[in-house]
Amino acid sequence: xxxxxxxxRAAATFEPVGRSVATARxxxxxxxxxxxxxxxxxxxxxxxxxxxxxxxxxAGTAADVLCLRNDDGxxxxxxxxxxxxxxxxxxxxxxxxxxxxxxxRGLLLCGALASRWGVEYTAAxxxxxxxxxxxxxxxxxxxxGPALPVDALPVTDARVRVAVIQIDxxxxxxxxxxxxxxxxxxxxxxxxxxPLTDFAAWPHxxxxxxxxxxxxxxxxxxxxxxxxxxxxxxxxVYASHLRVRDADGEASTVCLLVRDHERAILQSPQRTPAPxxxxxxxxxxxxxxxxxxxxxxSPAPDDLDGLLQRTVERARDMLDGDAAYLLLATDxxxxxEVRASTGLPSARQRFARVPVEAGSGRYGSARMPxxxxxxxxxxxxVPLLSGTGMRSVVTVPLKVEGRLTGSLGxxxxxxxxxxxxxxxRLQFAADRIALAVERARLTELEKLRRGSLSFLVEASDLxxxxxxxxxxxxxxxQMTVPTLATWCAVYTVADQSSxxxxxxxxxxxxxxxxxxKTLLMKVDAPEPVPTPGARVWTAPSDAAHDAALRTSxxxxxxxxxxxxxxxxxxxxxTASAVGGETVVLPLVAxxxxxxxxxxxxxxxxxxxxxxxxxxxxLSRRAALALDNARLYSERTAxxxxxxxxxxxxxxxxxxxxEVEVIYRAAGEGNEVGGDFYDLFPIRxxxxxxxxxxxxxxxxxxxxxxxxxxxxxxxxxxxxxxxPAVLERLNAAILDEGARSRxxxxxxxxxxxxxDGSALLKVVCAGHPLPLRLRQDGxxxxxxxxxxxxxxxxxxxxxxxxxxxxPGDVLLCVTDGVTERREGTRMLGDDGLTDVLxxxxxxxxxxxxxxxxxxxxxxxxxxxxxxxxxxxxxxxxVPAG
Length: 880
Hints:
Helix content: 25-40%
Distance between the termini: 102 Å
Domain PAS: 164-194
Keywords: Hydrolase
Pfam families: GAF, GAF_3, HATPase_c_2, PAS, SpoIIE
Organism: Streptomyces decoyicus
Radius of gyration: 42 Å
Oligomer: single chain
Protein name: SpoIIE family protein phosphatase
Shape: elongated
């Protein structure tokens, strides 16, 4: 087997963090676009996203991404460093993983999108790779010339027979020549006077094509069908019909028929508009022979919009029309969507939808060719042309394998411009471009689908990356504008009894945001109904047009003489901004409507159905993200409120002693910390202080924290000494049973003295020891360690007396300070002592601030534990 030749290589490694997934997608996208492989970028990005997520999130290791370009396509490999973690493969007896589950979803996508894929295990890594083949691009040019070798000429019988059959106005055979007798083995007397339908095998499915009776009424018709011979077999024929009338004015149809393989004898040369210079030159050199290229021109546009625009322009020129338009059918073929036009007043009708069947008041059905000689005779017959000044129109269907895929129309300002002859010519052109248009449409839909999948992956990542409500609202709007809509408004609903509130407004033109917001504030919010899907909302457009009309009348001195609040220019600009289609999508999370996502287009523009479906998918994800942000905000508010309730509201002023407290809660505010402090008066001249740390976080730790702080105050004010206070607190903690938590606690009583010193009695129950800083810079522990609380029933604690002389500092901290880490290093008691040694002569506030700064600078990462710092200093006695 031939080994593919590698022509380019790119590799990168991504750390096991969530943001690496987005970085890996960007790496693959940039690499493939740089290689000119834009056709497969979306598939590659989606597959890489899933596989890197498996590596950095599920396997928890770094991901190595390797991109190789070869002569067949692109191979991308994603490796993680967890080879023991095997991934599920589809073997006999195993159940295929469900698409909605996280595990194995990347493999399902590989199987669906990749040309080839596989898994390789080594001793150190697991590799998942996939191959995406590049689409084939034809090389060279098509060539054909007027001179052909004999063996390439059309094949016929030795004697070419052309059956001539004449059909009268009633559809019966009135003439049958000798060649018809030879071809079908009927004598003239056997067929004359009988309907042609008795012999014709017409390939017709009702409602999807032209029937034989309709074909016989056209002025000219060509095509294939069959004639049943006398032996009952069907002879395939190619026919050319021509309507004629005799000298008496009697109409009939002359049918010329040959065997189908001899169709070149009758088939009419293609009628096309005069080619441009490039096309004429290519034709003269023999480079163009394809009927599609003859009509559309060479080179043909490679994108759907360009192809459709070229089609309507050529169709208009071919029939010398004043306007032309092309509509594509929706998936269910019940509606047609305007995709290209030329010569109409504006392109505002783009993506407008009209029904395929609209009853007798319209031009019958888009499934059939139709000619209107004068639209004024049947007002509203062609809704798309209402108010455009067009009077005559010819429309033909675009069909692929009998399915309606679109409709092509050419219109003129004069009446009676088009007949069946022009319908036939336009139908021939439509038949030649229908397949190319359908292929381009399907390609566009596939790209849109894959682009939508990539868009939703990116959107999900962004929405999952924040739990802030305001940021989530901003992301919702920024993801829709301008990708899906020109402007966006998000309404939120607090609860079922609340009215919707306008929470965020965004327009692609920042100058329009204020005017749009003002307009929406004056309009009643859309009703918050849980019905899925987008529904049209006309209130903004109606209100904007009314405001613009009133403003214009005031500026002309008509109506109310009061001056408008804004100038005509701003009001008209706002009306133009919201004058198109506006849709509302409900934001439903956990079976409750929590808001509405409103999307709008400027004047007379419409949304594509595919865009609305994508917006609906986005709204479901956005609703869940918004509700998660709401729940997180509520939880954070509750946690912060509970945390505040566990700390003293303010510190009392202690005469003769400086006191400073610094408290830092770790995390993002969603957990109640276990650290606490307190300073309170016990009685005249005596103050209690405490600093503690409850094991763990959350409600259980908060319960012990609240118990400890309030019990300390109550017992101290009842006259119990330090050991008695802590022993009773220990018993209360043990009484909590399974909810109890260990508690380290430093408790002391403080008495300022008349000589300027301060007397302290302290008990250190399992807590980091308090440190005393003397004026000479020496640091020593101010207490001895004793058992922590919440472990043993019988505690025998004792208190120690410490005297702080003027200039001395007592520093009390929680273990969040001493256990600050950087890799394998820890600040520890020695590090804290070194910091405190440098604080001689500083105030209590300065000491606490220096300790905090030293803790923060010790490591680059944010602190992972709560910390509390309590500094007390006896000021120096002024000299003299």
